[in-house]
Design a protein that fits this description.
Helix content is 23%, strand content 26%. The chain is an alpha/beta fold. The chain folds into two domains: 103 residues, Golgi alpha-mannosidase II (Immunoglobulin-like); 365 residues, TIM Barrel, CATH 3.20.20.80.
């Protein structure tokens, strides 16, 4: 039996943006943004909006590597006047049908805060700034400031209608990484460029929140401490793509199906590298908050490995989300998925075909199902929690409700759990949970296989099924 004891004294406030989703046009690699856009009706497909509302993201980030060669003015104004662009990282042509207005409209429809990534002098990569067979794609501080003005200035002449009031902006994306066989800015260069961009953007709108790049470089040079000295930054960004250690493991290709127990054991340890990465960042971030603006497993195999469609990944991601919550005293933005598309298994939502046809419906991947479950049953303040046994748990509270996010880390055995509410009396307890065989995989033929169930719990003892993920909702007197 696991004894789970909660200290009901409220701690720090938890940011609502720990359930962010990341939207990047991936063109020939994964149709992503284009797959969700109805070019005939010139709007987002209603079935996608419906599924995204089920996922219920609190923030949507638009950008990624794509931002390093994106000129935002090519994606505003009448569609017939928009200039298509080569998607240099991901292949193919991006139509620019979805630009600033459409991204903000999407966010408003799903009640999410937009986060825009600016072209920061192509992050120092000449392959993006001056690509073959194209004009210069270098982004300037002036261009970034004009984008802020377009979004937030009520008198902007280019934008029609009310201002968008976009509060969150990111300067630099994977600036310290190695791309195209080259490195981008060195640390001092990245510092100077970020200062210039921040100054120009803040002049236009001093109220905006700025996120600067702060992750370590490929040769392990730490950026965080130096970048934390920029007063105009509110947060420091980093990414965590974990799974490189699995490249020579049975998780390659479809081998994960051959030994489910070994697959389970490997993925259950996935959260450890995430925990270490966040600890490294927070040790050097000074008084800055942290933003993990990309995060997910990345493994070899079809479409970034189909093991991510199986329930074993759902439980592994639950442990990662609990890890994020344990660092919520310094972490303000986080995600565990790449949002939607019709190829990559790292997406929260998969689009199995043309949404124009009614029989093709978007569905949640295991990571999306768990993020939806946890986000919908989440408290406002963190609580301390102690436990033993085979579970992994975190706790939070809002007013007279306590929430526990819990995963059973045993793939074969249920766990009896005894609750200690620190002297509080429970009026009502509900368990919202997903419990499936670890080898079950979601497809377009069983799109709701990981939909959560709800049952009421009598007393302070309950059983958590094997390989289950649950959000326990406790109303206290």
């Amino acid at each position: 039996m696991s004894n789970l004891k909660i200290n009901t004294e409220k701690k720090h406030k938890i940011s609502p943006y720990l359930y962010m989703q990341f939207m990047e046009p991936l063109s020939a690699t994964d149709t992503s943004v284009d797959a969700g856009w109805d070019y005939t009706e010139n709007k987002w497909y209603p079935s996608l909006i419906e599924r995204v509302n089920e996922l219920s993201p609190t923030m949507v980030r638009f950008g990624g590597t794509f931002a390093a060669y994106y000129h935002w003015k090519e994606g505003v104004g009448d569609f017939k006047d928009r200039k298509p662009m080569i998607n240099h990282c991901w292949g193919g042509i991006y139509s620019n049908a979805v630009g600033t207005n459409e991204v903000v409209d999407f966010c408003r429809q799903v009640n999410a805060e937009p986060l825009l990534v600016v072209n920061t002098e192509s992050d120092g990569f000449d392959c993006w700034a001056n690509p073959k067979n194209d004009n210069s794609r270098l982004g300037t501080a002036e261009e970034a400031a004009e984008w802020v003005d377009y979004c937030n200035n009520p008198e902007n002449a280019l934008r029609k209608g009310n201002p968008f009031n976009v509060k969150y902006w990111q300067i630099g994306n994977e600036t310290s990484y190695r791309i195209c066989g080259n490195t981008g800015f060195k640390l001092d260069e990245g510092y100077d460029v970020t200062c210039r961009f921040a100054e120009k953007m803040k002049i236009v709108d001093p109220s905006i929140k700025l996120i600067g790049w702060g992750d370590r470089s490929y040769d392990n040079i730490k950026w965080c401490k130096k970048m934390s000295e920029i007063d105009s930054l509110d947060m420091l960004a980093f990414h965590h793509h974990f799974g490189a250690d699995f490249y020579d493991s049975p998780l390659n290709g479809t081998d994960y199906r051959l030994n489910p127990e070994n697959t389970w054991n490997l993925l259950m340890d996935g959260y450890k590298s995430l925990d270490e990465h966040i600890k490294t960042m927070r040790a050097d971030c000074g008084n800055k908050r942290l933003a993990m603006t990309e995060g997910h497993f990345i493994m070899q195999g079809r479409n970034r490995n189909e093991v991510l469609s199986s329930w074993v990944a759902g439980v592994a991601y639950a442990r990662c989300l609990n890890t994020i919550m344990r660092h919520s005293d310094v972490l303000d933005i986080a995600t565990m998925a790449d949002f939607f598309g019709n190829v990559w298994q790292v997406n929260a939502i998969l689009i199995p075909g043309a949404l124009k046809w009614e029989h093709f419906k978007p569905y949640l991947q295991p990571v999306g199902s768990v993020m939806s479950l946890f986000k919908k049953h989440q408290g406002e303040f963190a609580l301390d929690i102690n436990y033993n046994g085979t579970i992994d748990a975190v706790a939070s509270a809002t007013d007279n409700k306590i929430f526990i996010h819990i995963a059973n880390t045993s793939m074969s055995s249920s766990e009896e759990i005894s609750l200690d509410l620190g002297g509080k009396k429970a009026k009502k307890i509900k368990m919202h949970y997903i419990a499936e065989n670890t080898t079950t995989e979601v497809t377009m033929l069983n799109p709701d296989v990981f939909a959560y169930k709800t049952k009421e719990i009598e007393g302070l003892n309950f059983k958590l099924p094997a390989a289950a993920v649950a959000a326990i909702e406790i109303e206290v007197e």
